[in-house]
Amino acid sequence: MIQLQHVYQSYGNAETSVPILTDFCLTVKPGERCVLIGPSGCGKSTLLLVIAGLLRADQGLIRIDRQEISGPRRHTSLILQDYGLFPWKRVVENIALGLCLQGVRKREAACRVQPVIKRLGLSGLEQRYPGQLSGGQRQRVAVGRALATEPDLLLMDEPFSSLDALTRESLQNLTLEIAGRDQLTIVLVTHNIEEAAFLGHRILVLDGPPLTLIGTVENQLSTTGYRGQAAFYETCTRIRSLLQHCSQRFED
Amino acid sequence: MKPGSSQTQGGVGLLIAAAVLLGLWQLAAVVVNNQMLPPPLAALTSFIQLAQGPLAIHLWSSFYRAGYSILLSLVLAVPLGLFLGRNPRVDHWVAPMIFLTYPIPKIVFLPLVLLFLGIGDASKIFLITLIVFYQILVTTRDAAKGVPEADILSLRSLGGGPWAVYRHVIVPACLPDILTALRISSGTAVAVLFLVESFATVEGLGYFIMDAWTRASAAEMFAGIIAMGVLGFVLILGVDLMERYLCRWRQT
After folding, report:
1. DSSP one-letter code for A42
2. Residue A79 in contact with residue A142, Cβ under 8 Å?
3. Sequence ranges of the domains in chain B
4. Whole-number percent of chain B with pLDDT over 70
């Protein structure tokens, strides 16, 4: 369970400080898939970095599994949009990196990630460099690296935004399958309404900075076949109207 | 340009280039018709003869002076450059010093260096190192500055500490630029070498060439010039081999 209570965070120095989070509260239940959607620069990525323990909040309480966090946590994995894979490391080295950093020997780590490689359909590509893979395969490697450390919390910052539509959908299906099987808690940042509707149990429509909650869309139905159902389109419409509301506010 | 297409690759292209250059040389020798510019065959014959005798010793002294200087510059400039590139607060104070001293042609200190370090190897190695050091330092620092923040976040999210960030991200990300700087520096090192060896020494190719010149021995002089070319070629070939091994991921 993620708990954020009265979190404050700002960028810049004392004079030109921009408040990103002011008195922000959020609770995400175990196994919940929580999607954050909102305009660029509203502070949602900052929120994700704070939850990841990569950015220290100025004030407030951040707890994961009742443990207050003061740095990156072993069972939290982060997946970023374009970066994150190291082009100078082979597929297997990229996936095993988290284990290696935990002190597992290189050879043992390479063995331990074999099931993940298999599961993500990357068998036979282990010795390739990211530059030799397609965009979808690369993002699979990023997912594999995140899973290799056996996380209970997956944080994703626009993970599929640079992929073409069908590859994106197949990776969304994969995310859903993994989340279901491993009982993962997911916090996902996206710009994409369909992605939010498809992956989120709960979609938070946000605006900012400072990050403000505009509205919440509850959505319990996510399964692989959900994309074709009327309820999916209804959810999309509700998210869209909330987003339009915040862009109007922006224009005013 | 990708390293895969680097100059020393492709034996056929190299042979054709050599043939063209030798042809031009032959042409120039015929046109100039001066005994100080011998045709390539005479120069090469002289090179092969002398290479079995005194020239080899001179070539060796030049080689280890250049080699030591390059190694020393690498050992000093790379860590410093990486550190400055990643520590803006220190860089803020050190950068002005670098940029005030960088444009000074260090070779003008030759008389001073000879005065303080004597006429042995130390003065030569010091001066070459000083010049090459700056080239590598500036390139490495800029490369380290340019490492995307997302790459570092990504490694830290996997649990990597400051050393792991250098080892897995910053060093490999900067290596291609460092090797490019090294390739340029090898040329510079040989050029500076010639100058420092033309004064107050009886060892090295610089001395050999100038000595042959004062004796108007064209064949010997050209044997020295060819040896200088071989030295430069070997150094750059070395950098190329290092690049092929260390930056395999870029050849894809």
Report:
1. S
2. yes
3. 1-33, 36-251
4. 96
Superfamily of domain B36-251, CATH level 4: MetI-like (1.10.3720.10)
Nearest CA in chain A to B147: A83
ipTM over 0.90: no
Residues of chain B contacting A161 with CB distance shorter than 8 Å? none
Phi-psi sector, A6: left (phi>0), alpha (psi -120 to 50), beta: left
pLDDT in tens, A70-121: 888 888 999 887 767 899 999 999 999 999 998 889 899 988 899 889 888 8
Contact (CB<8Å) B148/A49: no
Q: Do B252 and A76 touch (CB under 8 A)?
A: no
Contact of A93 with B158, CB cutoff 8 Å: no
Nearest-angstrom CA–CA distance, A199 and B3? 42
Q: Which of A88, A98, A149 is facing B172, going by the closest CB pair?
A: A88
Distance between CA atoms of B193 and B209, rounded to whole angstroms?
12
Q: What percent of chain A has pLDDT over 70?
A: 95
Which residues have a Cβ under 8 Å from the Cβ of B33 and sit 6 or more positions away?
none
